[in-house]
Amino acid sequence: MFNEEIKEYEHLRREYQQKVADKMSHSQWMEYNEILFSAHSCAIEGNSFTVDDTRILREQGMSMIPVGRSLFECTEMADHFRAFDYMVSHLDHPFDEALMKEVNRLVTEHTLSYRQPEAIAGEYTTEDMAAGDTVFGDHDTLIARVPQLMASTEKAISNGQHPLVVSAKWHGYYEYLHPFRDGNGRTGRLLSNFILLRAGHPLLIIRLEDRDAYISALKQIRTEGTDEHLVSFFFKTAIDRMKGELEQKRKNTLPTMFF
């Protein structure tokens, strides 16, 4: 299953790595990804920061709050930067509960008390959850499945399953479990990229404009009992990103007529 998607993805990945990623310094490459990923991942959860706003905040810090953005949004974005930086500097960390809890702690550290005063960043929810039109299952039952999810994912990686398939399957089941009071989406997208980065693959960036398709693919895990739609969505998102940036590179390398 997904053999054709894997074939197209790997063909593009080789070209993308050679023509885009490897042409930048590592620091420039990671900064570019961090800004783009943070802007879209937080926007999916309602943050109004644009990519340009995110770049300004990353470069100038909290001393330069973009016009029209709230202090809460700035703080949420700054927390996301810290979680991202932790993730990319700990790619040798086992893919386990400790990693997941630390990423969630960082991503919600300075905003959770505003939304959920009684909750503790990085600790599992102590009550049942609901989001949008979805009522999640019994929280104790779902949280009890987290260790098995992390262990089976680590095993799948070790067994040579394709990293993007593993990333998508882990993400779908993690969001199904929804173990934290806040930050489940951001934590899930960060750790899906942990799987990819550790395997040397480009980051998967789910853009705000693809939010509806993304949420629909997640819901189909509950309604249809299959994660095939989410895996397909991950491949399409990754392939579209690489194609788009390769085309940008081509167009921006063409000669320009000045007169």
Q: Helix- and strand-based class?
A: mainly alpha
Percentage beta strand:
under 5%
Distance between the termini: 53 Å
Strand order in the largest sheet: 1-2
Q: What's the overall geometry?
A: globular
Number of E-type strands = 2
Helix content: 55-70%
Summed over residues and divided by their number, the pLDDT gives a mean of 95
Low-confidence stretches: none
Major beta sheet, specifics? Answer: 2 strands, antiparallel
- What count of helical segments does DSSP give? 12
Q: Radius of gyration in whole Å, from Cα?
A: 19 Å
Order of helices and strands: HHHHHHEEHHHHHH
Task: Using brief descriptors, characterize the structure shown.
single chain, 259 residues, mainly alpha, two-stranded antiparallel sheet, 2 strands
Task: Please explain how this structure is put together.
With 259 residues, the protein is an all-alpha fold. The chain is built from 12 helices and 2 strands; from the N terminus they run ααααααββαααααα. The chain has helices at residues 3-19, 26-44, 51-60, 71-89, 97-108, 112-115, 139-143, 146-158, 163-177, 184-198, 211-224, 228-251; strands at 130-131, 134-135. A two-stranded antiparallel ribbon has the order 1-2. Strand 1 and strand 2 (134-135) form a beta hairpin. Helix 4 (71-89) runs antiparallel to helix 5 (97-108), helix 5 crosses helix 10 (184-198) and helix 9 packs across helix 12 (228-251). The longest helix is centred in the C-terminal third of the chain and has 24 residues, at 228-251. It starts with a helix and ends in an 8-residue tail after the last helix.
